Amino acid sequence: MTTIAIHADPVDQLLEVGLKDLWYPICPSSFIKEKPVSLRRLGRKLAFWRDFDGVLHALEDRCPHRGAPLSQGVVLGDRLSCPYHGVEVRCDGVTTRVPGSPGCKLEGTRATRHFHVKEAAGAVFLYNSSEPVDEPPPLVLPEELTNDAEYGHFLCYTEWKGDYRYVLDNVMDPMHGTFLHKQSHSMAEGDSKAKFGIRATDTGFVFEKEGQRNVNFDWTEWGDTGIHWMRLEIPYPKTGGPGGNFIIVGSYTPISTGLAAVFHWRVRKLPKGWERDTWRFLYRNRLEQRHWRVLEQDRVMLEDMEPDANQHENLYQHDLGIVRLRRHLRNLAQQQIEAKQTAQA
């Protein structure tokens, strides 16, 4: 019998669990309350908890003693006490106490991987560093999520079955709005045979319909500011209330091979005051349900695609943005792999 060796693509393996040295959204802030929480993200099982001042911390969810889940332990301020044998691990990964063997070599060692976390725009963000760092780079989000004086937003969080990269492809495909979402109150117009072009920006690129603006889902922007995000606008009818176009900012995180964490912030540019209050009221009581229906159309379509669907494609001009983004991500992954090999050598 002949044995055929199958060699996995290291670039694909890295992309599957998420590129390193980037910020990623992990979950809504409301997920983490008084007790520790265990979440699988970015190829790891992570323990999150709040200390007595409400400050958020994150460790790999594995006790350095026997590998028990720290997330099932007791919060001792900036430390977690493992439920299995009481070993205490501080938020910086240092084992501070081993009750069963005081003074053993485990005490005082940084034997647990720790991660930097921040909260912003209603979500928890984690810096996925390739190696432990004392200070992470700043978390730089799009203006729509940080300029509270001019923008109002809602966080829409969900989890979709399938590879997170299919979600990226979906958002980098403005033309699907004209077909899949044609019954939507905000995406029923536009040329179904439009040509597309790619325009570079300071942080990435814009994939846009030529000669069509403010008609439908006309463009998608890809940005890299130390976190990868996507942005688009959908024109609103007058029934959508005051304000400009409906803005969506998205960021997507791998949970596992078959599950993705999907973050969409739904935004309008409105100053604080009655206009923003009016839109928020309309959104919560009338518009949110419509947007969930649109999102459900995407979810059903993507979840029903075969895992290897991207290996059987016949792409055309409308797919230039997807090709550009896939190539860019593969290049980033290759650079990280080569940098790691160089450092090891």
Describe the structure.
- It contains six helices and 18 strands.
- With 345 residues, the protein is an alpha+beta fold.
- It has a seven-stranded antiparallel β-sheet. The protein has a four-stranded antiparallel β-sheet with strand order 2-3-4-9, with no helix packed on it. The chain has a four-stranded antiparallel β-sheet with strand order 5-6-7-8, with no helix packed on it.
- A hairpin with a 2-residue loop joins β5 and β6.
- α1 packs across α6.
- It is globular and about 70 Å long.
- The two termini are 38 Å apart.
Task: List its salient traits.
single chain; alpha+beta; 23% helix; 18 strands; 2 domains; seven-stranded antiparallel β-sheet; 345 residues; globular; Rieske Iron-sulfur Protein; 30% strand
- For CATH, the homologous superfamily of the largest domain is named as Naphthalene 1,2-dioxygenase Alpha Subunit, Chain A, domain 1
Tally of DSSP helical segments: 6
Strand residues, percent: 25-35%
Task: Characterize the largest beta sheet: strand count, sense, and whether it forms a barrel.
Answer: 7 strands, antiparallel
Question: How confident overall, as mean pLDDT?
Answer: 91
Number of domains: 2
CATH architecture of the largest domain: Alpha-Beta Complex
Low-confidence stretches: none
Which H/E pattern describes the elements? HEEEEEEEEEEEHEHHEEEEEEHH
* Morphology: globular
How far apart lie the N and C ends? 38 Å
Please compute the radius of gyration using only Cα atoms: 22 Å
Provide the spatial order of strands within the biggest beta sheet.
Answer: 12-18-17-16-15-14-13
What would the CATH topology of the largest domain be? Naphthalene 1,2-dioxygenase Alpha Subunit, Chain A, domain 1
Percent of residues in helical segments? Answer: 10-25%
**How does the helix and strand content classify structurally?**
alpha+beta
Number of strands: 18
CATH class category of the largest domain: Alpha Beta
